[in-house]
Amino acid sequence: MDPRIERIQTAVEYIQERIGGLRPMAGIILGSGLGKLADSIADPIVIPYAEIPDFPRSTAVGHKGNFIVGELGGKCVVAMQGRFHYYEGYPMETVTIGVRTMFELGVKYLFVSNAAGACNPDFRVGDLVVIKDHINAFPNPLIGPNFEKYGPRFPDMTCAYDLELQALAERLAAGKGINLRKGVYYGSTGPTYETPAEVRYYRLIGADLLGMSTIPEVIVARHCGLRVFGMSVVTNVANTKNVERNLNDADDVVKQADTAADRLCALFASMIASL
Ligand code: HPA
């Protein structure tokens, strides 16, 4: 067996042993500062990545590093409290290992969240933005031999972000008085934040949001046929002018994400409840 698949199988077997007969229907990836959604998961079984044989560790700020299996919105879910970023130095198969692990655990849906900078000047810090599409500036995580057991060589990305889930989010948010925006997420490797010239360029080519995650996971999720819902929390409005001040700060990003986490959490829970 390919060692990359073996590593996933090892994690799946370990997690299955810990969760008994539970079969999660949705996977959730919690971005920077959004880990507290995990507090809303009832009867949680917490599995630190560090306890899973041969599984990578999460080193990024605001990321804890646990799988949490339990109930959200009355359904069995598996959440990743902390993800793996390309800028941490992991190869793409490691960045996306959680998605295939959750797929093997039986999930049909993937909910991804992240903290993002806005390059759409109408967006404000604290806004929740439904990701409607993306622009990928990472190396594609599917480069290399195709694993037929997961999906086709040339997967379609026309509707990477599920249209029905987007409509459901809008309906439920309206009922809860939660204001939602929609936008295109531009994902690049980081770890540097963008220069003002880059921000202007990304805006010009159609981006609303800027980040350093999510897209590799979404590509791998679509490859194996998961239905994807993505949401960004705007933690800063990216700077388009050269000023004598450093406008991007990782601790501030985490703090802003924290204040929006309650709304994001309520929305994810009610979406999952109505699936
Ligand atoms: N750029 C890239 N990634 C980010 C940002 C940003 O401005 N804010 C939070 N993550």
Describe this structure in words.
This protein is α/β, with parallel strands linked by helices. It has one domain (3-274): 3-Layer(aba) Sandwich (Rossmann fold), CATH 3.40.50.1580. Helices cover 31% and strands 24% of the residues. The protein has helices at 3-19, 92-95, 97-104, 163-176, 196-204, 215-223, 250-273; strands spanning 26-30, 42-48, 66-72, 75-81, 109-118, 128-136, 180-187, 209-211, 227-237. The chain has a 5-stranded mixed β-barrel. Helix 1 (3-19) crosses helix 3 (97-104), helix 3 runs parallel beside helix 6 and helix 4 (163-176) crosses helix 7 (250-273). Hypoxanthine binds at residues 115-117, 193-194, 210-212, 235-236, 238, 248, 253.
